[in-house]
Task: structure prediction
Amino acid sequence: MTAAKVKSSALTGYVELTQSLGSAPDPFMRAAGIDPTSLAIPNTWLPAERVDELLERTALATSCTNFAVTMADGRGVSILGAVGLAAREEPDVRSAIALILRHMRVHNEAIRILLVELNGLASLRIEPAPGMTLGRQSIELVVASLAGILSAFLPEGWRPLSTCFVHDAPATLDAHHRAFGTGIAFEQDFNGFVLYSSDLDSVNPLSDPMFQPYARQYLDMLAPPEDASTVGRVREMIEALLPGGNCTAARIARSLGMDRRTLHRHLSQAGENYTSVFDSVRADLARRYVARGDRNLTDIAGELGFSDLSSFSRWFRRQFGTSPTKWAAHQHDITPV
Result:
């Protein structure tokens, strides 16, 4: 497996902050295996593990436990480069976030972001990519940067309802309060934040409808989808939006820059329709999640867009002829030793 990488723009502000704390950044960077001159070259890819080590090493050496949150201060959509350029032209906040989630690998291969919606609330959950382990500084940098990006789309002074971290609290919270407001909780079940679903339905004030097609074209030239076919792009969007429970053909068509009828025509030409693609994605993810066995069935049900565990269990039995628990046990029984 190729080691995950992250764009050098993730370290924007690192040199200035380290110097302001009375330390020279070069020794820290070299000790972490990062050439200091790489920060002077736009869009340089850096090994994510080395960036993670650099942030942890610097926070410890400078006795600044809120190093990453402070470094993220003032970040907005532009930190994402071409992805940010395209996202700012989406018609609403939900479409902008969906585009960012779908193309995050263009900027950072070390994380995955899930959007989960339930009972009028939405949570954006940040997880390390499979095989990755990230320290508190890397996690806080991503969460703070994402909050800054959302702030660019929403009214001035917007803050998450609640910001959550799996790790414990630092000694002081001043920087965290500036970034997230006062609703911060540590030692939680996930890293990320909670907001109203209605915030995602807000009109994007940055959008210029005339420029949107050009922004999308530019992004596709720099970072074409892994599967550039319409079916492949729809599959990618369903996988990104499914945990939110608001994954519809109309929403996906709009995010792809077409109306629902045009989307249906493209899928029909490939021998598919929206329902068939949706069911295929959901079944593939269900097999993958249940077989891994690293999360409980209630969480899996939520990630697959079900309102509760019983609905998921009934659907799973119809799909696979048995319960999720029995299916997982059978998979483990037939796995070669």
User: Anything to note?
Assistant: The beta strands are 5-7, 45-47, 111-118, 121-128, 162-164, 184-185, 191-196.
